[in-house]
Amino acid sequence: MKRLFLPHFPLARRAVVCFFVVVITAVLPAAEPEAIDDAAATEQAVYAPGTSGICFDAAFDGGRLCGCVALSENEYEVIIRPEDAPINNSAWYAFRVTSPEPRRITVRICYEGGSHRYHPKISSDGKHWTPLGPQAYSRDKKGAALELDVGPESLWVSAQEMIGSSELEAWIGRMSRLEFAERSIVGRSVEGRPIWRLKLAAGRPRGAVVILGRQHPPEVTGSIGLMRFAEALAAESEPADSFRQEFEILVFPLINPDGVAAGHWRHNVNGIDLNRDWGPFTQPETQAVRDEILNYQDETGPKLCLLLDFHSTHGDVFYVQGKDQPTEPADFAARWLQALSARLPNYKVRSAAEATERPTSKKWGYETFGIPSITCEFGDNTDRRLIRRVARRAAEEMIRLLLTERDQAAPYSSFRSTYAYRIP
Ligand SMILES: [Zn+2]
Fold first, then answer.
1. How many Å apart are CA 314 and CA 318, to the nearest integer?
2. Mind spelling out the 3-state secondary structure of 173-240?
3. How many Å lie between the centroid of ligand 1 and the Cα of residue 218?
4. Is the pLDDT confidence value at 39 over 60?
5. Ligand 1 centroid to residue 272 C-alpha, Å
6. Rounded CA gap, 57 and 4, in Å?
7. 409: pLDDT confidence band, cut at 50, 70 and 90?
8. Of 134, 158, 182, at which residue does a domain stop?
9. d(CA 148, ligand 1 centre) in Å
10. Of 135, 158, 181, which residue constitutes the final position of a domain?
11. How far is the CA of 312 from the centre of ligand 1 (A)?
12. What is the rounded distance in angstroms from the CA atom of residue 78 to the CA atom of residue 47?
């Protein structure tokens, strides 16, 4: 059994090392299975356990694999642990497997510090993913067993389809080619990765909407919803066009790029839950986004009307302000979700009103601006087409409601005068 510590290991060299390890292991006597439990082990490592030449690695952005043991020629145990503890049980894993010969193997996922949450997805290219079929997958309280057909070409295995920095940056790049869009880097993460802002605006907007995403690394379904929502705001339609004349849209699709790159379960690389940092603001990621949003305290500029923060959890739910927390625009969340429900008769729009004490973006947006600040959660297992449909309809109804607010607020700037900003 070998473990090679190879951060940012290029694919070609990885293949060479895999070959090298195979040669070495072929001339060594078969060792007893032995757990790799090196505290210094990084997730971006290559493992070639046993003598079969099978190679596991997580040497790519978003990879997470903390150890690997051969139980037999055709059975392997992979070890997955979180970046630190205590932590939410968002038990992310992502790795690749190759074998010199085609064969079927059993891979047992064994968690340390968590339990199985995500139905495995597989891919032959890291871009196109399919859920592992039910006959090839079983789970118990702690872990899961996967039947995988492996061969010389990499088989990717991941907790969710991988939508990480490269996919989100490519999306930002495509969106920014629209004539009314622009992208910019508003700050840097702890490790220096860009914090991107996509801005959609035409004309001279009087209002603004802020959209946040991916504070929590594994929350891919939140990203799917965020992208579709923003695309609906960028649509070539009369309402979307009117909306962009009146409102600017600021999208921060990837607030925790380091955590996403490192395959973290929850935190940034300083071990901080970024959606508990909207108050302390100890991290560069939240500071950068906060500073952008605070520009809306300038009373000569557009009035911030809505903050949406996209996440994932076990099911779809919108977290809104508590009953004794009035917003401006008044009662927006209830009206919005009611309208969404009317658009999606076969879909149950779930919401929960809460006045959280935790320093989340939702709490901060409400307390700083008095605006509706809503956490939009999509389920880990919600059908991806349904997520897109819900996100698109939600965007369309938001457009309709905010344009109606504009028409009823005469002059529109009366929005502003009715609410005194509370500076944090
Ligand atoms: Zn989250």
1. 12
2. HHHHCCCCEEEEEEEECCCCCEEEEEEECCCCCCEEEEEEECCCCCCHHHHHHHHHHHHHHCCCCHHH
3. 8
4. no
5. 13
6. 10
7. low
8. 158
9. 30
10. 158
11. 6
12. 10
CA distance 172 to 151: 35
Distance in angstroms (rounded) separating the CA atoms of residues 254 and 251: 9
Structurally, how many domains does the chain consist of?
2
User: By C-alpha distance, which of 44, 52, 50, 36 is closest to 14?
Assistant: 44
Q: In angstroms, what CA-CA distances link 97 with 94, 104, 148? A: 10, 11, 9
The pLDDT, as a whole number, for residue 281 is 98
- Express as a percent the part of the chain with pLDDT over 70: 86
Average pLDDT, rounded, for the chain: 88
Alpha-carbon gap, residue 282 to 196, rounded angstroms:
19
Nearest to 88 by CA among 224, 275, 354: 275
> Residue 71 sits in a domain of what CATH number?
2.60.40.3120
**Four-CA torsion 218, 220, 225, 227, nearest 10 degrees:** 110
Place of tokens 């952005």: 61
Q: How far is the CA of 283 from the centre of ligand 1 (A)?
A: 17
Cα separation, 307 vs 244, in Å, equals 16
Report how far ligand 1's centroid is from the alpha carbon of 82 (Å): 15
Q: Give the whole-angstrom CA distance, residue 250 versus residue 200.
A: 7
389 falls within a domain: yes
d(CA 23, CA 305): 63
State how far the Cα of 111 lies from the Cα of 91, in Å rounded to an integer.
Answer: 8
Of the candidate ranges 9-13, 68-72, 156-160, the one whose mean pLDDT is the lowest: 9-13
**Segment among 20-29, 111-120, 187-196 with least mean pLDDT:** 20-29
CA-wise closest residue to 246 among 191, 200, 206, 196: 206
Q: Which residues are found with C-beta within 5 Å of the ion, ligand 1? A: 216, 219, 311
Whole domain around residue 38: which residue ranges? Answer: 3-158
Domain membership of residue 424 (yes or no) is no
pLDDT digits (tens, 9 = 90+) for 277-320: 999 999 999 999 999 999 999 989 999 999 999 999 999 999 99
**Of residues 3 and 322, which shows the higher confidence score?**
322
Residue 422 lies in a domain: no
Task: Round to whole Å and give the CA distance between 421 and 401.
Answer: 23
pLDDT at 142: 82
Tell how far the Cα of 373 is from the centroid of ligand 1, in angstroms.
15
Q: Based on the domain organization, do 230 and 368 belong to the same domain?
A: yes
93 and 11 within one domain: yes
> At 407, is the pLDDT very low, low, confident or very high (cuts 50, 70, 90)?
confident
